[in-house]
Write a structure and sequence with these properties.
This protein is an alpha/beta fold. The protein contains seven helices and 15 strands. The protein has helices at residues 2-10, 84-90, 127-137, 164-172, 218-230, 263-266, 272-275; strands spanning 16-25, 30-37, 50-55, 59-64, 75-80, 97-104, 117-123, 149-155, 177-182, 192-193, 210-215, 238-241, 257-258, 261-262, 269-271. Strand 3 and strand 4 form a beta hairpin. The protein is globular, with a radius of gyration of 19 Å. The chain starts with a helix and ends in a 7-residue tail after the last helix. It binds flavin-adenine dinucleotide (FAD) and FE2/S2 (inorganic) cluster. The site of flavin-adenine dinucleotide has 21 residues, from strand 4, strand 5 and helix 2.
């Protein structure tokens, strides 16, 4: 009996069972699932890591952990409904059981950013992996380790903003500069209109002491990188999370190859100089 328990907890292919303890509809396409392992253990992830979530008889897919490691006893996944597995997950009620493998991959390294400014640039669902790091560095225990924290967040239109209550908290905090934009205005919208790069030129950045964390759709990286070069941000302070189609999540199947890397084990978080030379990376 003891041998089986040990085998299960160390075998990277064997899912562990977690229960959905709450489900919140964030937008028309995304739901926030809070999960807890049946045996109560913590996931033990770093911000930016992902898990493979499985629904028995349906399939498995990689999803970023969106909660901060500072939250204990549960973890959150924000899932967009896009196909077979995610559609099925969206139909589940609270109390449902799913399989979880992981956490996997190389996440962000908050220690490396200590004593520096951090500029977050998130587009659309890119806020999901980034939120884990944001909520880690703004946690009262860790906030003193960092200087200025700026969060730029863009969505196609206001109805696509994820986590509106949390956005309000970030907006109200004196120690965070939080700015948002939408690609298209709707009646009643009074904020900035334009792509996320329109928020960068007005920023006063201490270029040599600022880490920039970027997560968003592929098209966003190209233009954000140009704007950050205009601000003289050193390339080795630009950090990004890349998404590739994955299967195994543990470096065995080759589905997620980008140049010489396997995104699932060498990433999904990379420094810009690591992937700059790989044409298909960005
Ligand atoms: C490291 C990582 C982290 C991720 N984190 C999240 C997250 O936090 N929240 C979230 O909603 N999604 C996330 N995704 C994307 C998610 O894994 C896919 O949407 C999911 O695999 C789709 O599975 P499905 O069975 O529902 O759809 P399928 O029926 O398999 O496919 C539906 C459509 O989505 C496309 N697709 C499948 N996987 C991907 C992918 N990785 N990238 C782009 N298109 C894809 C397929 O080609 C197809 O067109 C992440 C992906 C990776 C690799
Ligand atoms: S998903 Fe299998 S090697 Fe990366």
């Amino acid at each position: 009996m003891q041998a089986t328990t040990l085998e299960t907890s160390t075998n990277i292919y064997v899912p562990q069972i977690a229960e959905m303890i709450s489900i919140v509809q964030c937008t028309a396409m995304e739901k926030l699932f809070r999960l807890r392992f049946l045996d109560g253990h913590d996931l033990g992830h770093q911000p930016g890591q992902f898990v493979e979530i499985s629904l028995f008889g349906v399939g498995e897919c990689p999803i970023s952990v969106t909660s901060s490691p500072t939250e204990r006893g549960y973890f959150d996944l924000c899932i967009r409904k896009t196909g077979k597995v995610t559609d099925a997950l969206h139909k589940l009620p609270v109390g449902s059981k799913v399989g979880i493998r992981g956490p996997f991959g190389r996440g962000f390294n908050p220690d490396e950013m200590k004593g520096q400014d951090i500029l977050f640039i998130g587009g659309g669902i890119g806020l999901v992996p980034m939120r884990s790091l944001i909520n880690y560095v703004i946690h009262p225990t860790y906030r003193p380790n960092y200087r200025n924290i700026t969060i730029l967040y863009g969505a196609k239109n206001p109805s696509e903003f994820l986590f509106p209550e949390e956005m309000e908290e970030w907006r109200n905090r004196k120690d965070i500069d939080f700015r948002i934009t939408v690609d298209k205005a709707v009646p009643g919208w009074q904020g900035n209109v334009g792509v996320i790069t329109t928020l960068i030129p007005p920023l006063q950045l201490d270029a040599l002491h600022t880490f920039c964390v970027i997560v968003g759709p592929p098209i966003m990286y190209k233009f954000v990188l140009i704007s950050l070069a205009d601000k003289n941000i050193p390339e080795d302070k630009i950090i990004m999370s890349l998404e590739r189609q994955m299967k195994c999540g543990v470096g065995k199947c080759g589905h997620c190859a980008i140049g010489e890397y396997y995104c699932c084990i060498d990433g999904p978080v990379f420094k810009y100089p690591e992937v700059k030379h790989i044409k298909e990376a960005l």
